[in-house]
Design a protein that fits this description.
There is one protein chain. The chain is globular and about 60 Å long. It has a single domain, classed as Farnesyl Diphosphate Synthase (Orthogonal Bundle), CATH 1.10.600. The chain has a two-stranded antiparallel ribbon with strand order 1-2. It is 74% helix and 1% strand. Strand 1 and strand 2 form a beta hairpin. By secondary structure, it is mostly helical. Helix 4 packs parallel to helix 7 and helix 4 packs antiparallel against helix 8.
């Protein structure tokens, strides 16, 4: 079912009418929307809605808006983080330039709003929830940038940041169908917290893959977080538990060998395994929220959690 949903989402993304002119705007938008991706967020929206018997056309509309929002954030994040590869292809700012990428991101977000406006039920409530999520993602990205090279960042501050940057969109992906369906606040909160905890596990696992995976398999540039001074959970654990050794490694390693030295340090100090355990704890807590959904078949959502947890790219 998950593969079928992903395939359908890709087909609908390709059907979004993108004008030919001006090419400066629409060529990179087309490039972004057809560059592939795992589509976890629209899949999550579909599975959440399916569990609550929501119309499939509505779910596709919500899903497309969610995926476009995600693409908008990626285009801008890639500029800010100087990433050059996304989904195995050059990022937009690398293929064109930063000005083009900024405008393309703005266009993608606007298309998301146009698609979302097709919702006929609880339109204003759904739109408000969607836009509040967008602002929270921006807050998370702002914190991520503020935290760069800041050695005072704690684990709690890191978790709060990823909850905004990553957790908020997975939370919204899960809860939007319930918001549309007039779900009560308690039910909306369960779905949102399920998605947020899934998002935390996802982001920590992503940080882990940034160190342990192969860039060709991942389809994006790796190591950029290290060179940007990002305060990932692994960096925080290394800095707090091994302050002298960590400082010495950063100060004395040749720049060409730094990534390898850091990877080895994380492995030797068991930081990779500790990070994996933290990630798994959030995946477990996300499943605990699903267990609160009485009389609702959550088998497909459980399957998605395991798929995200076990991914290698």
């Amino acid at each position: 079912m998950i593969d079928n949903i992903r395939s359908d989402v890709n087909k609908y993304l390709e059907r979004i009418p993108i004008p030919d002119s001006p090419k400066y705007l629409y060529d990179p938008i087309r490039y972004s929307l057809r560059s592939g991706g795992k589509r976890f967020r629209p899949v999550l929206t579909h599975l959440s809605g399916r569990a609550n018997n929501i119309d499939s056309d509505v779910l596709m509309t919500l899903s497309l808006a969610v995926e476009l929002l995600h693409n908008f954030t990626l285009v801008h994040d890639d500029i800010m983080d100087n990433d050059t590869i996304r989904h195995g292809k050059k990022t937009i700012h690398e293929e064109w330039d930063s000005s083009t990428a900024i405008l393309a991101g703005d266009g993608i977000y606007t298309i998301a709003q146009i698609i979302l406006s097709k919702i006929s039920n609880n339109t204003s409530i759904v739109s408000k929830y969607f836009n509040q999520t967008t602002l929270e993602i921006c807050e998370g990205q702002a914190l991520d940038k503020e935290f760069e090279n800041d050695k005072t960042i704690t684990e709690k501050m890191y978790f709060d940041m990823i909850d905004k940057k990553t957790g908020s969109l997975l939370g919204a992906s899960s809860a939007l169908p319930i918001v549309y369906n007039n779900g009560d606040n308690e039910l909306i909160n369960i779905y949102e917290q399920f998605g947020r905890h899934l998002g935390r596990g996802f982001q920590i696992h992503d940080d882990l893959l940034e160190i342990t995976a192969d860039s060709k398999v991942m389809g994006k540039s790796l190591g950029s977080d290290i060179f940007q001074g990002k305060q990932t959970i692994m960096v925080i654990l290394a800095r707090e538990n091994y302050p002298d050794e960590w400082a010495e490694l950063l100060n004395n390693s040749d720049s060409n060998e730094l990534f390898g030295a850091i990877s080895s340090f994380f492995e030797e100090k068991n930081i990779i395994q500790e990070t994996r355990s933290i990630s798994e704890s959030y995946f477990s807590s996300s499943l605990n929220y699903l267990r609160q959904l009485n009389k609702i078949n959550t088998d497909e959502l459980v399957q998605l959690v395991h798929l995200i947890k076990e991914r290698t790219y």
